[in-house]
Amino acid sequence: CTATFRVFWLSIITWLLAFDYLKSETLSNYADCRTPTQEAGACIPIKECKPLLSYLSSVSVITPEISKRLHEYHCGFKGKDVQVCCPSNGLIENHVNDGDSITKHKNFHLLPKDCGAVLVTDRVRSGTIASLFEVPWMALLSYETPNGTEFRCSGSVINNRYILTSAHCLSKNREIKLKEVRCGEYNLNTAIDCEGEDGPAYDTTICAPPVQDIGIEEIIAHPGYNLKSFTNDIGLIRLERPLNVVAENVQPICLPVYTTLKNTTRWFTVTSWGLTGVKSAELHKITNEIVSQEQCQRAYAPVLPMQINEDHLCATQKHEQICYGNSGDPLQIETILDGDIHNVQYGIFSFGPRSCRMTDFPYVFTRVESHLKWILDNLNA
């Protein structure tokens, strides 16, 4: 019965791909190709792609999401035979996220359940400046440069040993070297971050613990990162020692690991030290509206020869803009998880226009949901 089920779905997927052929009545004859994650592959008949057949035999249900992802491997036809881009490394399963099956991953326990805490206080500030302790998962990447030490990228704490960021922040450069990570920062101009009022009759001032500057044990950039297509712009940093996540100013953010956390809303928040166009001393937050891939593609088509795909999330801002220098910033939202409200990260800032005056022009984020398995594959205790 199970084998029959696989054959049935394989025939359905083949029919869907063949439908493109019937519409276009054109033939393609590619020898080499690139998978949806920009890895090398060979364009061969679907029934000869052993990694694809193996993957189909390993999943219990072919969900619409999986069917859609598999459809992206279509690379042409040979006669009337449907061809797919069969990855040379044989890792089809690394490219498709099977919903809640991610919770069965051997490293799933390394993502803490106590994550993305929502600040419950009357101190939450209005406007675009974040409050102290409101975004405790923010991390700053410190680089050695010819001009001295500089913070050039951001990231997010996902557990006490790992920082999630953009792959291009991890690129090797002779003159610029990633040195360490700072967590628990709020105001770049103060040694100790405090908030509140100090009056003659009362003192409402609260202060944060010191920042945590920690060296780097390992840099893990996605092997499929492509600078030209901006795909797989995601990476991890393993710290040389654990963070103190008991501190109020250092906490991990949640990732969208459950199907109930699938992205269904239009409004997200980006947090950054660079939202106002120049490096801001205080941590900022700004609301973003998600736009369609089609709208995003139309915007970039005249300036960038690239394809906006499922690996990307695009968002616009109506007022203050994300500006150059915000690479690695998290795109997040407050949502329900296990009956409580948590902050969940859905995107990592990848690229956008350098001018802050380009209102309504979309900024592009790497979609975290597309890389959950890769993230878990690269975590260690």
Brief account:
This protein is α+β, with helices and mostly antiparallel strands. The chain contains 5 helices and 18 strands.
CATH architectural arrangement of the largest domain: Beta Barrel
DSSP summary, beta strand count = 18
The major pleated sheet works out as: 6 strands, antiparallel, barrel
Q: Tell me the name of the CATH homologous superfamily of the largest domain.
A: Trypsin-like serine proteases
The whole-angstrom Rg is 22 Å
The largest beta-sheet arranges its strands as 5-6-7-12-11-8
| Order of H and E elements | HEEHHEEEEEEEEEEEEHEEEEH
Shape: globular
Counted by DSSP, the helix tally is 5
Spatial separation of the terminal alpha carbons: 40 Å
Q: How many separate domains make up the residues?
A: 2
Q: In the CATH hierarchy, what is the class of the largest domain?
A: Mainly Beta
The level of helicity is 10-25%
Provide mean pLDDT, rounded.
80
Low-confidence stretches: 1-30, 93-97
**CATH fold name of the largest domain:** Thrombin, subunit H
Strand content: 25-35%
What structural category characterises the helix and strand content?
alpha+beta
Subcellular location: Secreted
Family: Belongs to the peptidase S1 family. CLIP subfamily.
Enzyme class: hydrolase
Protein name: CLIP domain-containing serine protease
